[in-house]
User: Fold these one by one.
Assistant:
Number 1:
Amino acid sequence: MGAGEGQLSQEDIDALLGGGGSDEGDGGDPFGGLGDDSGGGDDSVGMPSDDILAAALGTGSTPPPPPPKPQGVKKSPGMGGNNANLNLLMDVTMALTVELGRKDMFIRDVLQLAEGSLVELDKTVGEELDLLVNGKLIGRGKLIIMDDYYGIRITHMLNVMERLI
């Protein structure tokens, strides 16, 4: 082969074009006889060799080496691939909301709200409250008071099938 792997020398380029290394005597055919269907019965006349074609395409008789295996977290027999991906998400923040209740109101009623107005919610005292993560229901719990702070004691976590409904 001419220059380096995947590169062609001028001699290889000329051989591919059928010029044989010179610009003279090509009979006006810019392809140097390649694809000339007008005569001869031998289609291989003027065609480049397989070695020259392989050099032009950057392919050789030996296959390229396999790509290197990524160096990353080695899995132990008990550790699944999902655990490593899950560990990447552990520091992502999410909005946790405890919903005391809801109320559908007309716009005229919302516009009449002022300080001291009461809004009746759809939940009763002692009823379980909804626990939402990023607006999606994930569980329910009871309201508790701890040192002048409100909290929720989780009584039920929804399984995957319940969350889809």
Note: The chain has five helices and four strands.
Number 2:
Amino acid sequence: MGRNRIPWTPQEDALLIENHALSETRLREMLPHRGGSGITQRKVILRRAGKIPASTRRTAVKDWSVLGPVVLRMRKEGVSIHNIAAAIGCRDETVRAHLRRHGMPVPGDQAEKVQRNCLRCGREFTAQGLYIRRCDDCKARERSCEFA
């Protein structure tokens, strides 16, 4: 059985339409018997009906047909991801995602291979990441309780 839902009144709809840009907290203060998810769902319904304008969060969409080659060229030249993002006016993660889509390596995606001395046996080995401190043999012996 579903919950009994109170239908939205025309006055509540008018209030929501007029103040749709306010934060959820402010809207909940204005509509005290409505929950946050109910207000959000009603805004979606009113937006689909054309009574509330579409979201305006994305102010400008980037033209990646122009920016894409620039980003790839800058990265090949060794410019940092942070500086590329600042130059084209977007977030670092947007540049990282673009580089991944085009098969370019992104720092932090793959573990670096590092030469280490095992903390257990002292032999030198190639670690598959910065935080690996024991060689594969010692890890295997540990799993088989040989060191116990």
Note: The longest helix spans residues 36-48.
Number 3:
Amino acid sequence: MSRLLTIPILALLLLTTACANHMTVNRISQAKSSTTIFLRPTNEKTIFLEARNTSDNPNATLSDLPARLTEKGYTLLQDPDKAHFIVQVTTVFAAKAKPGSTLDSLVAGGFGGAMGGAIGTAATLGSGKGFGWIPGGAAIGAAAGFIGSKVTEDDQLSIVADCQIIEKTKEMVEQVVSSQTTPGGGLPAPNNSLVSLFGGQSLSTPNAGQTTETTQEVHRGNERIHKSRYASMAQEMWMDQNAATADLVKRLTDSIAGLF
């Protein structure tokens, strides 16, 4: 094959491989919860709100939640004992998601649980063999196509928040509440080596070497406890992380404010 024919073939490989990796130009964002929360209708419109952020992204705090609840006619109190609702929201994860992660995998662990998801691999080269096993000039085409796919590959950003709502009740309630904890947060650790990029896993296995502890507590009193994990995910090629973070925070804020 002449060199003149090689150039357009490589270009075609690059383009077709890139198209296979979606090339999402307009950002796609979604949100989901692990459990549906139903609050009993009441004329009591007082809330004690606590919004925290334990992730590495300081912009991932649901800071607009107080204003959203006020717009709905609720009064925010500083004393939790006087409020009808106690709302606690903690952002537990805010970073780029692993390739292959889904909203289902992010909320699968439930409130306080670990975050699962697919293990990202370097395209078809995830076997660890790299390019050496591809014969002849095909290796050049595979390399061009793989690099093209990485250049045009979509970014995925995820924000995960755990939400607990305590509502006061007139009747006595007996409730069994389960919670999960994973030492170290149970989050995947990135691997930035060039070897992993071209010949192996791009991220380590989530929760490797960790255990998840499940605790059950029996509550008796005049209050009902609701717990749920909320996750939002954005997908876009060449993503502006700040803009995507703002978008995902708004989606989570809308989801939690929508409960009231």
Note: The chain has six helices and six strands.
Number 4:
Amino acid sequence: MNPDLNEWNLVVVGQWNPHIFSPQWMCNTLLNVPQVESEFVIGPLGGGMRYLTDHLAILPGQDRLIIGMRDTLDATLEEAEHITLRALDLLRHTPIRAAGVNFLYTEEVLPESVLRTFQLADNDVLADAGYEVSSTEIVRDIRVGDAVLKLKMVHSDQQPAKFYFNFHHVIDSPARADTILRGQTVGYRDRALRLLRDFYHLTVDNEGNNVVNNPNH
């Protein structure tokens, strides 16, 4: 399996003011660095600024703050967590309602034991009726301590299989976010890896060496 860093991030959903996140504020207040790379990106729901450091991609929006990771190193996960909590502390009056830690892994060739997971009870009925299933998604909500793991597994005839991990928290204040998220990001990644290994017998190739220069968050 391989990590897809386009979907590795911490997300805090709320009512953010993206105008606060100017290049000067990012450098002098949030990141404490002399300079930061910035670019304007356009997505399906509009455009906004993206700030890039050597290890992070930071996207402040009106409804969410996204702190993306550009490699899989433990230090990068810890830095993403630190910057997320620092933003919440600096902007502690921001109304927030949820936070999530997200990872995505892909696999080109699934073993037969995992393929059977996608053979749902009505597959044969559909096939007998002349329908061909080209893609299957299985979504589960799994209670993990204070979080809900939203696990989505996708198998398609045309693309690698995908395993999405969203460790989701309902949070009503920045202080509560600090209590829940601090020291958890690396542990959540490790939990995802153990689930893949122990239940689906899948292991990750070259963990720690995967880098994306321009993540498409």
Note: The chain has a mean pLDDT of 90.
